[in-house]
Amino acid sequence: MMHSGVALVLCLIVAAPPPSFVFEPSSRLWVEGTSSLHDWSCEVEHFAGTLEAETTDTGLANLTHTRVTVPVQGIDCDNGTMNGKLRKALASSDHPTVTFALTRGIVGADDTDGWFDIDVLGQLTVAGETKPVQIAARGKALGDERFRLTGHLALHMTDYGIDPPTALLGTLKTGDEVTVHFDATIRR
Questions:
Q1: Distance CA 131, CA 155 (A)
Q2: Span 56-97, pLDDT tens digits
Q3: Contacts of residue 83, Cβ cutoff 8 Å, sequence gap at least 6
């Protein structure tokens, strides 16, 4: 018969949640797109989130919970007019944040160069519209319970009910497709 103290410790070990990770300040998130005049890029200056993942002796296993929140006001295109058009297009007064919530994240085996693939499924909410998304990401262990995660997601603004912004009386038109990129470092 198992001693009740040992049983309690085993229950606590089995029931322990996976480790939680936060984004380091050096993490980067940005959006790129096109227009009838030139390509453009906007940096996400402020975002917050946490990531929970099962870990192994050598790195990350499966992602179990991730939520990232981006305040629309924290997106900077380095151009006041474009910032205003972007915020208006994203309906920032009614929907002040863009959010991503993980549905499933499966980590593949390490490559010979130390990188591993991550198949990420989640729900992306932009301008009040929520859609399922799939992101092909890559990760690499950096040591000291830190990991680098990179990837991108192409999406169409019209899928989220957003009319691509225009300027100069309609002569400057933004392309419908944009690509969200990330190069983030997480730590326990």
A1: 10
A2: 766 788 899 999 999 999 999 998 888 888 888 888 788 999
A3: 75, 76, 77
Sign of CA dihedral 162, 166, 170, 171: negative
d(CA 90, CA 61): 35
**C-alpha to C-alpha distance for 151 and 3, rounded to whole angstroms:** 48
What is each CA distance from 88 to 19, 52, 84, 115, in whole angstroms?
38, 33, 6, 39
pTM for this prediction: 0.85
Ramachandran angles phi, psi of 165, nearest 5°: -60, 150
C-alpha span between 98 and 120 (Å, rounded): 17
Q: Cα–Cα distance between 143 and 137 in angstroms, integer?
A: 19
Q: Choose among 153, 160, 100, 151: nearest CA to 127.
A: 160
Cα 167 from chain centroid (whole Å)? 29
CA 142 to the chain's CA centroid: 19
Q: Which CATH number fits domain 22-187: 2.40.400.10, 1.10.540.10, 2.40.128.110, 3.40.50.2000?
A: 2.40.128.110
